[in-house]
Specification:
Elements lengths: L1 H7 L10 H10 L5 H10 L6 H8 L3 H11 L13 H8 L1 H14 L7 H23 L5 H10 L2 H6 L9 H11 L3 H9 L3 H11 L4 H9 L13 H15 L13 H10 L7 H22 L2
């Protein structure tokens, strides 16, 4: 699969970094934590009970703490404080639990949470929130799937910020964005010689995510093609979600080019928005996304 993803990568390598270097680096990365792997697998099993899940999560006190904090967040609106892990899991639900666990895995990848890491995290959360709201508004059946995939769209940036060689280069990426009004992909290629989608796709494959998820991570920032109408509905929603998130300012650095209204409108029609009421319907979706993003930020803080 590594070779397939590399062939599909719409970009070149430079700055003395080759495709083989990236693959070798990814292969040396640690796997996703075992507790999270087991919990994600159990969350997909309808027979899993809150008690069984709690027993697994108690092996990782940090994850247990995250679940309790999520259950007690303002978003869930419960008056009584949740004090047991099993009750927290029951209240949060298995679908939401998966997103909390995945968010925890991504955020703990490196030990620091500085301004750059916060920017990248907001970008991921913005895409995930946008995808979920779009699925709700358009009555799509894969809300949870696309929320999780949305969280993974920035995985490559998270991993790059944990790397001793590339993390020191990322301020230069943001500086280039500010000075040249470029997007993340263009600036990353100028500074590092490649861009984060290929890293994220390869790491997701290493972590055992489905091929469709890896391809979504790889292709989400690419513009529409001539045969976009034939593309998977999920991919188009993720493209739209990523654009909306940045348009609303989630994870958008100074100077970032966000004049993508034409592409946003075309994507919106492709996924099911009514052409006649497009402007008002998209504005309504954006308002819901802004409200939801504020609540999601509390849950995943």
């Amino acid at each position: 699969m590594y070779s397939t993803l590399l062939k599909e990568y719409d970009g070149s390598f430079g700055k003395s970094t080759t495709a083989e270097d990236i693959v070798r680096w990814v292969q040396d990365l640690p796997p996703i934590p075992d507790v999270i792997t087991r919990a994600l697998r159990m969350a997909d099993d309808p027979k899993t009970t809150p008690g069984e899940m709690a027993e697994v999560l108690m092996a990782d006190p940090a994850l247990a703490s995250v679940m309790l904090r999520s259950a007690n967040s303002a978003r869930l609106g419960h008056q009584r404080k949740v004090t047991t892990l099993a009750m927290a899991i029951m209240l949060v639900g298995m679908a939401q639990l998966k997103s909390v666990l995945l968010a925890a895995a991504i955020r703990r990848w490196n030990g620091r949470i500085g301004p750059i890491e916060r920017l990248v995290w907001e970008k991921a959360l913005g895409a995930a929130t946008s995808a979920a709201v779009l699925c709700e508004q358009l009555d799509k059946p894969y809300k949870e799937e696309l929320y999780l995939t949305g969280l993974l769209l920035n995985l490559g940036q998270v991993v790059l910020l944990s790397h001793t060689e590339f993390r020191p280069l990322y301020p230069a990426v943001l500086q280039r964005i500010a000075e040249h009004e470029e997007d993340y992909i263009t600036a990353e290629r100028r500074v590092m010689g490649f861009s984060h989608p290929i890293v994220g796709a390869l790491v997701a494959w290493k972590w055992g995510f489905p091929a469709a998820t890896c391809r979504a991570i790889l292709h989400y920032p690419e513009p529409l093609t001539a045969n976009s109408e034939e593309q998977d509905d999920r991919i188009i929603i993720l493209k739209l979600a990523a654009i909306i998130g940045l348009t609303l300012g989630f994870g958008r650095p100074d100077g970032y080019v966000v004049d993508m209204q034409e592409e946003l409108d075309k994507l919106a029609v492709l996924v099911g928005f009514n052409q006649a009421t497009l402007e008002s319907d998209v504005k309504a979706a954006m308002a819901r996304i802004q409200t939801r993003f504020a609540n999601e930020s509390i849950v995943h803080a």
